[in-house]
């Protein structure tokens, strides 16, 4: 298992890092990670005012398809508070 909790918000393009992680997995292994969620209808990923990236669910799906991994589950979650406001995101497990 590879876990990246509150890490990928510092990366824009995730294809390279997810592809590298997938190559390191043993058969049946899982990658679990979180990203800040980019609202529907916006770009695949975007640098936000606080200096971290948000990613759309459709962008993640395109990456998974491209590198041959499949989602086990993906859910919306409150990741943390920033300046007293909840930061919403996605928590995903892929294999």
Describe the 3D structure.
This protein is α/β, with parallel strands linked by helices and 95 residues long. Helix content is 22%, strand content 40%. It contains two helices and six strands; from the N terminus they run βαβββαββ. Strands 1, 2, 3, 4, 5 and 6 form a six-stranded mixed beta sheet that branches. A hairpin with a 2-residue loop joins strand 5 (71-82) and strand 6. The radius of gyration is 13 Å and the shape is globular.
Total beta strands: 6
CATH secondary-structure class: Alpha Beta
Going by helix content, strand content and strand pairing, the class is alpha/beta
**Coarse morphology:** globular
Question: Briefly, what is this?
Answer:
With 95 residues, the protein is an alpha/beta fold. The protein has one domain (2-94): 3-Layer(aba) Sandwich (Rossmann fold), CATH 3.40.50.
Descriptive tags:
95 residues; 6-stranded mixed beta sheet; 2 helices; globular; single chain; Rossmann fold; alpha/beta
Topology summary:
Elements: E1 2-4, H1 15-24, E2 31-37, E3 45-47, E4 53-55, H2 57-67, E5 71-82, E6 85-94
Parallel strand pairs: 1-2, 2-4
Antiparallel strand pairs: 2-6, 3-4, 5-6
């Amino acid at each position: 298992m590879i876990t990246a909790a509150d890490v990928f918000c510092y990366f824009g393009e995730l294809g390279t890092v997810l592809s590298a992680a997938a190559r390191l997995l043993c058969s049946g292994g899982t990658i679990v990670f979180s990203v800040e969620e980019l609202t529907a209808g916006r770009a695949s990923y975007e640098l936000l005012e606080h200096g971290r990236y948000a990613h759309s669910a459709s962008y993640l799906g395109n990456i998974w398809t491209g590198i041959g991994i499949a989602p086990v589950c993906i859910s919306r979650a409150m990741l943390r508070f920033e300046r007293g406001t909840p930061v919403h995101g996605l928590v995903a497990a892929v294999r």
